[in-house]
Automatic annotation (TrEMBL):
Active-site residues, record numbering mapped to chain: 382
EC number: 3.2.1.21
EC main group: hydrolase
Segments of this protein annotated with the region Disordered: 316-340
Full protein name: Beta-glucosidase
Positions with biased composition (Polar residues): 320-333
Similarity comment: Belongs to the glycosyl hydrolase 1 family.
PROSITE patterns tied to this protein: GLYCOSYL_HYDROL_F1_1, GLYCOSYL_HYDROL_F1_2
Keywords from the UniProt entry: Carbohydrate metabolism, Cellulose degradation, Glycosidase, Hydrolase, Polysaccharide degradation
Catalytic reaction equation(s): Hydrolysis of terminal, non-reducing beta-D-glucosyl residues with release of beta-D-glucose
GO molecular function, one term: beta-glucosidase activity
Organism classification: Bacteria, Bacillati, Actinomycetota, Actinomycetes, Kitasatosporales
PANTHER family tied to this protein: GLYCOSYL HYDROLASE (PTHR10353), LP05116P (PTHR10353:SF36)
């Protein structure tokens, strides 16, 4: 543990992280793999969504993405060159189990076997995420996440992945950001599958929870005794616009919908009563069956935390809308039962996504999670920023704004550790520029620049800077 004495110097002094702190980077299958119709892979909901006119900027798709499916050796070599200790990637469900049912496709599993073996050979810890939003389209056609059967199919898929990779992958994550899957996918429609039904969004949230619990059980039955299970949540750090009681209640409502709808059943074994009351006008939650909460509430080895920017809310008074929540524009809200809540743009500097740059939100979030769940270690599984990067005439990408962003957020993580939070690692989002969902290829989050026409990879200045941090375990002063 870092001691307070080590950080008692000036704020811009170098900050050492604890011994064994895990430094990595992260990606997602649909965003980088490409090879959308190769070796048995069938369409996911994101293939269908991206091919629907008007859904994705410029009509971009993940058909090729960064062609990681064919260039994975080059990408692993880049990770090794950068000195990363871990790589968080996701398995593509439709590549492993194309219809979402039945036996696995061995060519799909072989791709991940080769990837994992190369990572291990180069001393990079593989961190496998089972689901990063690419549901097989056939399962969506059968009802998708609003249906209980999808949770059951997810557990079967988890078993297939664990049988193939459980002897070599020691860290597993069930779901990435289930809030986005449920509320952006089925509520506002700005993510796949693009449905706009608030009750379906709440049903999806429950069945994602159930799928998580069933998958943890399937993993535990198959993976190594020393392996770890986790889930990654995009916990919203929600702040009130003013100090009024009405704005405090707006925070409570959004905290229930954004955070406690998952942390309640997953970590405490119950849905929050205020969430059920707030949404009672939409549903009686009868889709929650006896025994579901016990199935969901499985022991975890750590909680994955994704953070980019805080969320500012108030009682609705005409000064803000649900479109100001940073998740994309839609005439439909991703916040069922919160019609009287307005969202506001936080003040200050923003990234190319329009998201406020505010490391204090990450510090506050980590301290809250440590207070709420004091025995559960935390890992920052995503943190990063999109900027308008370009390669200069000499072929360099000097992304100084990203370096400043990451430095500020790592300083917040370090401060949280010093103040008692058990944070075990940090994964920079993202390793590569890639397909950024509804934004297509218009937003660049990568530490490595990708020239999309050629696929050429160019490590940015931030990649070299982060490499030094990862190698030394020391955050340099400003």
């Amino acid at each position: 543990m870092v001691t307070a004495q080590q950080t008692a110097s000036a704020p811009d002094a170098a900050r050492p992280f604890p011994k064994g702190f895990l430094w990595g980077s992260a990606t997602a299958s649909y965003q980088i793999e490409g090879a959308a119709a190769e070796d048995g892979r069938t369409p996911s909901i994101w293939d269908t969504y991206a091919r629907t006119p008007g859904r994705v900027r410029n009509g971009d798709t993940g058909d090729i993405a960064t062609d990681h499916y064919h260039r994975w050796r080059e990408d692993v070599a880049l990770m090794a060159e950068l000195g990363l200790g871990a790589y968080r990637f996701s398995l593509a469900w439709p590549r492993i189990q194309p219809t979402g049912r039945g036996p696995a496709v061995q060519k799909g599993l072989d791709f991940y076997r080769r990837l994992v073996d190369d990572l291990l050979e180069k001393g990079i810890q593989p961190v496998a995420t089972l689901y990063h939003w690419d549901l097989p389209q056939e399962l969506e056609d059968a009802g998708g996440w609003p249906e209980r059967a999808t949770a059951e199919r997810f557990a079967e898929y988890a078993a297939l992945a664990a049988d193939a990779l459980g002897d070599r992958v020691k860290t597993w994550t069930t779901l990435n950001e289930p809030w986005c899957s449920a509320f952006l996918g089925y509520g506002s429609g700005v993510h796949a599958p693009g449905r706009t039904d608030p009750v379906a969004a709440l049903r999806a949230a429950h069945h994602l929870n159930l799928g998580h619990g069933l998958a943890v059980q399937a993993l535990r039955d198959r993976i190594r005794a020393d392996a770890q299970c986790s889930v990654t949540l995009n916990i919203h750090h929600v702040r009130p616009l003013t100090g009024s009681d009405a704005d405090a209640d707006a925070v409570r409502r959004i905290d229930a919908l954004a955070n406690r709808v998952y942390t309640g059943p997953m970590l405490q074994g119950a849905y929050p009563e205020d969430l059920l009351k707030d949404t009672a006008g939409l549903t009686d939650w009868s889709f929650v069956r006896d025994g579901d909460l016990a199935q969901i509430h499985q022991p975890l080895d750590f909680l994955g935390v994704n953070y980019y920017s805080p969320t500012v809310v108030s009682e609705a008074d005409g000064s803000g809308t649900h479109n100001s929540d940073g998740h994309g524009n839609s005439t439909h809200s991703p916040w069922p039962g919160a019609d009287k809540v307005a969202f506001h743009q936080p003040p200050g500097e923003t990234t190319a996504m329009g998201w406020a740059v505010d490391p204090t939100g990450l510090y506050d979030l980590l301290r809250r999670l440590s207070a709420d769940f004091p025995k559960l270690p935390l890992v920052i599984t995503e943190n990063g920023a999109a900027f308008d990067d370009y390669a200069d005439p000499s072929g360099n990408v000097n992304d100084t704004a990203r370096i400043a962003y990451v430095r500020g957020h790592l300083a917040a993580v370090h401060r949280a550790i010093v103040d008692g939070s058990d944070v075990r690692g940090y994964f920079l989002w993202s390793l590569l520029d890639n397909f950024e969902w509804a934004h297509g290829y218009g937003k660049r989050f990568g530490a490595v620049y990708v020239d999309y026409p050629t696929g050429t990879r160019i490590p940015k200045a931030s990649a070299r800077w982060y490499s030094e941090v990862a190698r030394t375990g020391i955050l340099p002063g400003a």
